[in-house]
Amino acid sequence: MTAHGPNLSISGHxxxxxxxxxxxGERLALTLQAVCEGRWTIVVVDDGSFDNTSHLASEFPVWxxxxxxxxxxxxxxxxxxxxxxxxxxxxxxxxDADGQHDAAEIPRLITPILADEADVVLGSRFxxxxxxxxxxxxxxxxxxxxxxRIVYGIKVSDVHNGFRAFSKCxxxxxxxxxxxxxxxxEILVEICRNELRFVEVPVTISYRNDTILxxxxxxxxxxxxxxxxxxxxxx
Amino acid sequence: MNLFQxxxxxxxxxxxxxxxxxxxxxxxxxRLWRFVTWVGGALLILVPQLTSWSAHELGIGRGTDFVSYxxxxxxxAVMFHFYGCQFAMQRDIVxxxxxxxxxxxxxxxxxxxxxxxxxxxxxxxxxxx
Lengths: 235, 129
Fold this sequence. Notes:
- The complex is a heterodimer of chains A (235) and B (129).
- Chain A is of the alpha/beta class.
- Chain A has helices at residues 25-35, 53-57, 73-86, 106-114, 135-152, 168-173, 183-193, 209-214, 218-233; strands at residues 9-10, 13-21, 41-46, 63-66, 91-96, 120-131, 164-167, 198-206.
């Protein structure tokens, strides 16, 4: 991995957006249409999709990386973050491929880092707005928040929100070992372990039927808990 | 000695001897565990009263109950061990896949022009694009 020349930047800071995608197809195309409007470099990590995700992504002005097999969202984000860091990123933002996030809110997450008020900015749907969130999802997320508070002692209003931004320093220090969905909790633990400054900002998450079907189930929440425990045993 | 003892004890002794012989070469801890298992098994078959005595000492009751409890615990331990091995191997495979992806980045359509445009304006606009 080498530096690939100039970066798109804001106030001299190279902003990179990392999008992990697995079988996202048309949803990714809509997401990229919205995200490509800004002055940032985008890297899409195709996590071993069976559909045309890679092909669709390569039709946009973005970097495309492809895992030869499905490794999980945590691994895909790590790949994208490593690539961004290797290419001179100053601020790295993670964004969901399925169109649940609002690209217009990206500057809200970047601003605290550019102003050196925080090392990590976490989007929170509970401070912001959740459109058409099913009650079962609300319950799972609230249990996740409670679990994080009891087990790790971390007080945040949203634990599994993929809309977050890291300074270069934070991205270098945060080690993502969890390759699947447990990475979200792991990132919070790493923030505390590295004593990084973080703020939460309100964001909007829009739920649609197709994204709900693809998202986390109650079984997924149990698997995340299991992965976290196993990850602690086998470091 | 009965027929079962005649059949199993030489086999277990041979297996224990093999572990001892290879002990200096590699996998010392695994070989030690296996040696203890074979010798323990041989002893329990040779002196069946040992299980009854152990069960009585532990307050379990019958020797067969003691054997089944030990077997259950060992099964859980072995399953846990193999799950850990599988977990570690999966992590290694993911790392390989990630490195493979990082080796071959692809530029999407229009990215080169976008970056070139940025490069062109960099000298005149303080590298902001």
